[in-house]
Automatic annotation (TrEMBL):
Stretches assigned to the HTH araC/xylS-type domain: 1-52
A GO molecular-function descriptor: sequence-specific DNA binding
InterPro entries: AraC_XylS_family_regulators, Homeodomain-like_sf, HTH_AraC, HTH_AraC-typ_CS
Keywords, ordered alphabetically: DNA-binding, Transcription, Transcription regulation
Gene3D superfamilies: Homeodomain-like (1.10.10.60)
UniProt keyword DNA-binding, yes or no: yes
A Pfam cross-reference name: HTH_18
The protein's name: HTH araC/xylS-type domain-containing protein
Amino acid sequence: MSQRLEQAKLRLSAGNANIAITALELGFNDQSHLTRAFKAHFGLTPGQFVKQHSGD
């Protein structure tokens, strides 16, 4: 699981990844599953992570 979450983090940090598509491509059941696991592992949601790393 942690490898998939690290892969999701890499894709999201690239700035052009869609969270729902990333979730499915990495084998999560849906976006919600990725979001819950991502928040438990990293302490923030994928959306929050993207906002923090977008430079806005």
